[in-house]
Write a structure and sequence with these properties.
alpha+beta, six-stranded antiparallel sheet, 6 strands
C-alpha cells in the first residue's frame, strides 16, 4: 500500500519514522531506506515500510505486512500482505501520527 506525505517536517526521515514505532531494517537485499515494526514478540509478522522520494515536495511510503521469512534458500521473496484490512489500518495510524508532527 502506498502512502504519500508532504515533506513539511523538520526532522530527518529516520527520526520521523521512529515516532511511528518503526526501526531501521538493515538487510543485504534491501535498497534504500526501509523500516520495520513487529506486530508480536517474534520477528514475524511485521510491518515493512520502504521510503522513496516521490517528488521534490513529497515522499512515498510503501507499506506491507511480512507474514513470515522467505521459505526458499537464496531468495528474499516472502509472504506479504499489501492491501488487507490490517495494512489499511496501519496506513491510517501512520497518517494520523504524521499529521500531528
Amino acid at each position: 500500500m502506498k502512502i504519500f506525505i508532504k515533506k513539511s517536517f523538520k526532522e530527518n526521515i529516520p527520526n520521523l519514522i521512529r515516532h511511528l514505532g518503526y526501526h531501521e531494517n538493515r538487510s543485504r537485499f534491501s535498497q534504500g531506506l526501509n523500516f520495520v515494526r513487529t506486530v508480536s514478540r517474534g520477528f514475524y509478522p511485521r510491518f515493512h515500510l520502504y521510503i522513496n522520494q516521490a517528488t521534490e515536495e513529497e515522499l512515498e511510503l510503501n507499506l506491507h505486512l511480512d507474514q513470515k521469512k522467505s521459505s526458499y534458500p537464496g531468495t528474499h521473496a516472502h509472504a506479504g500482505d499489501y492491501d488487507t484490512e490490517v495494512v489499511k489500518e496501519e496506513a491510517e495510524r501512520i497518517k494520523n501520527i504524521l499529521e500531528r508532527l
